[in-house]
Amino acid sequence: xxxxxxxxxxxxxxxxxxxxxxxxxxxxxxxxxxxxxxxxxxxxxxxxxxxxxxxxxxxxxxxxxxxxxxxxxxxxxxxxxxxxxxxxxxxxxxxxxxxxxxxxxxxxxxxxxxxxxxxxxxxxxxxxxxxxxxxxxxxxxxxxxxxxxxxxxxxxxxxxxxxxxxxxxxxxxxxxxxxxxxxxxxxxxxxxxxxxxxxxxxxxxxxxxxxxxxxxxxxxxxxxxxxxxxxxxxxxxxxxxxxxxxxxxxxxxxxxxxxxxxxxxxxxxxxxxxxxxxxxxxxxxxxxxxxxxxxxxxxxxxxxx
Length: 305
Description:
The protein has twelve helices and twelve strands. It has helices at 2-12, 30-40, 50-57, 106-116, 131-147, 168-177, 189-193, 195-204, 215-218, 230-245, 268-274, 280-283, and strands at 45-48, 74-77, 97-99, 121-126, 150-155, 158-159, 162-163, 182-185, 209-211, 224-227, 263-267, 287-289. The strands form three sheets. It has a seven-stranded mixed sheet with strand order 5-4-8-9-10-11-12, sandwiched between helices. Helix 1 (2-12) crosses helix 10 and helix 6 packs parallel to helix 8 (195-204). It is globular, with a radius of gyration of 20 Å. The model is unreliable at 293-305 (pLDDT under 50).
């Protein structure tokens, strides 16, 4: 997403100086970034991820000018649930902020899963301290009744206030014992960082997996996913930044939306290992991934930190 954002300006011939700061999943660094942005007098702030965005820009109903950036235009990306969090409406933030969404609507995801493999019982492991996962559970349950399926969601274990990676295989085994047909991987940073544990356990138990974001399919062993490409999300975010910086459009007038094109990713080595080949009509629309990387490769946070 960050690369797409940067490349957009280069491709459009727009000269910009990008000052990059990495919070490294450490919330304590963010107030310093707010102070630095103000001190430098930057023209625009681009934030990546839910925690970074909410801590630096504030939730729409709890903005504190002493803590949050309010006088600098801002564009956010890779925020799993911006509606009701960063913004009150996708049509307008009502303030000096705009951004992009990156998750395919839940109902579309469920329909895509049914088109590959009909299911009656969906399983999910989630991190109890991640708001994104709790919202996803509520959205799936709202779709489940009319979709004719049920959701079995198990929280991962906590240790000293932090999620415990060692609990993931056991949770997958418990869902297998509960008779799930498919494991759903939500936009959850902890699970993304530990995606090899999660998808490896699912494959060991012969459970097909669907991911809401690209990394578990592209960089690990999830079977398939319906996603908006991070790179494309970054480019769309940069387009919005261009509207602000070059065309002087106020952020509140720029709606929050997603790329127009849905990408379907299918991990073919996993499909062969499970004996679950995609239907021909789906293969014609999908990007087929033939080579899975070595375990642990590319293990960067790709959900919402």
